[in-house]
Amino acid sequence: MEENCLEEFKALGVKDSKQLTAAKRSSLYDEITRIAKVVHFSSIDTGEIDNYVWFGTRRRKLNFLEAIHMARVISLLQADEVYVDAPDTNPGMFTVELSQMVELCPRIVAQHRADRDFVIVSAASIIAKVERDKAVERLRGEHGDFGSGYPSDRQTVEFLKDWVRREGSRPHFARKSWKTWDRVLTETLDP
User: Fold this and answer.
1) Is residue 12 a contact partner of residue 24, using CB atoms and an 8 Å limit?
2) DSSP state of 108
3) What is the pLDDT of residues 50-70, one digit of tens each?
4) How do residues 86-106 score in pLDDT, each as one tens digit?
5) More confident residue, 81 or 182
6) I want to staple 36 with a disulfide (CB 3.0 to 4.6 A). Which of 1, 72, 95, 103 is the partner?
7) Which residues 6+ apart lie within 8 Å of 190 measured at CB?
8) Domain 145-189: which CATH number of 1.20.120.550, 1.10.10.460, 3.40.1260.20, 2.40.30.30
9) What 3-state class would DSSP assign to 110?
10) Which option is the CATH number for 5-137: 3.40.50.150, 3.30.420.10, 3.40.50.300, 3.40.120.10?
């Protein structure tokens, strides 16, 4: 986005997506895509996540996978400066790693909780959350209501247990490397 859009986003109430209702995120999504110069997002499928969790080296796990996808988006933006929510415990190291993945690298500001501190990252968190919600809705349409899909959701855990009992395997659309599976499989197979 152009820098002059930041105040407009603030006035609309753009903030960290976790602090907004689904309805508010949805309406802000439309405003963000209308106002922003360009919007790109990158989805990561469960198989790619599993590969990085199971077969990645200590430094080449989920943070590295996130950096790869961030770099893809950054390469499309043609921006002078980008702000990202750093998943790494060392934002400086993450910035270096990310900048090495982008051919024509802009200035990168990586910070923990950037979605709370920078309205541009808040806007990106809204885009990501709404896109995730759309994907979850598609899965619900195909497989029934499984709750939020988060490990803290009892409905999600019960859905997974029922699936394993009924199908004898994990759902193809769920991460096999998800730590929640240890608990689900233990409670399902060893009641």
Assistant:
1) no
2) E
3) 988 887 765 568 888 999 999
4) 998 899 999 999 999 999 889
5) 81
6) 1
7) none
8) 1.10.10.460
9) strand
10) 3.30.420.10
